[in-house]
Amino acid sequence: MFRLDGKVALVTGASGGIGREIARALHAQGATVVLSGTRQAVLEEVAADIGAQGGAERLHVCPADLSDAAAADALVASAEEKAGAPLAILVNNAGLTRDTLAIRMKDDDWNRVLDVDLAAPFRLCRAVLKGMLRRRAGRIINIASVVGVTGNAGQANYAAAKAGMIGMGKSLAQEAGARGVTVNTIAPGFIQTAMTDVLPDAQKEKLVGAIPLGRMGQPGDIAPAVVYLASDEAGWVTGATLHVNGGMAMP
Amino acid sequence: MSEIADKVKKIVVEHLGVDESKVTPDASFIDDLGADSLDTVELVMAFEEAFSVEIPEDAAEKITTVKDAIDYIEKQKAA
Fold this sequence. Notes:
The complex is a heterodimer. By secondary structure, chain A is an alpha/beta fold. Chain A has helices spanning 17-28, 40-51, 69-83, 107-135, 147-150, 156-176, 194-197, 201-209, 223-230, and strands spanning 8-11, 32-35, 59-61, 89-92, 138-143, 181-188, 241-244. Chain A has one domain (8-242): NAD(P)-binding Rossmann-like Domain (Rossmann fold, 3-Layer(aba) Sandwich). In chain A, helix 3 (69-83) runs parallel beside helix 4 and helix 4 (107-135) packs parallel to helix 6. The two termini of chain A are 28 Å apart. Chain B is built from four helices and no strands. Chain B is globular. The two termini of chain B are 20 Å apart. The chains are: A alpha/beta, B mainly alpha. Chains A and B meet through helix 4 of A and helix 2 of B. Chain A: Belongs to the short-chain dehydrogenases/reductases (SDR) family. Chain A: NADP(+) binds at residues 38, 93, 158-162, 191.
């Protein structure tokens, strides 16, 4: 079950903690994976690491700065060119934070997070949907966050972007459903990555105390959910938000 | 029939998978040719690509029959 042989997947933010594990898992299921991110050297390291176990010819690197609208618009086409085949799977995983309390939040903090975390995924969905609708097949998986549902002090921008992603996904699911294209969202809880390493220890302890499964998530905890939603077996799941958060929130 | 009309007809046949004989000038994409709303958007995008024209949203809404499409594109091309 859940094999992805012969399918091409694009993973954005593939140099980050969660993204590289998503890329690794899709590749392990047989997919050809295009890794995107801003740092080419890191992407190449990740690709070399994943490809070390074999299947290196099914890995491609396609850097893009998603804060640049034109770069986001062009990424799907360049990924398909690198892979030599149309995308069957899009994983919008790239994201950034600019945390601060709202009363101190600058317009730039707001705009940058909304641009990269919401507008860029929309641009990628729009670009990839054209082909997917025509081919009557496709899987879009957006990586949101639990804070898009619960909110979080200091993250008005990030939470708004992630909540927006959930609403966008539900809308796209309705538009694309008649063509066999599914659009789903995964909402990770607190995962141990560079993004959460910056939190103070006291806050981390408090966080773990609120997680029934008693630990922070690991980057690899998200990838299996992506594999499932990308598979043919998940063909009757669309517009869903899958919460992978150790039980921290059960919306 | 004009070259544009021929090309429009061909695109409609290709995209909607309907018999060429059904694609008459008065045929409505939705009522006669079985298109859904997404099909009509895809058709408009195919016209834009094939004829290198831009069809704005408000104009696209008014293109409901084969003749509508041919007339609009012919007008754009003449301008």
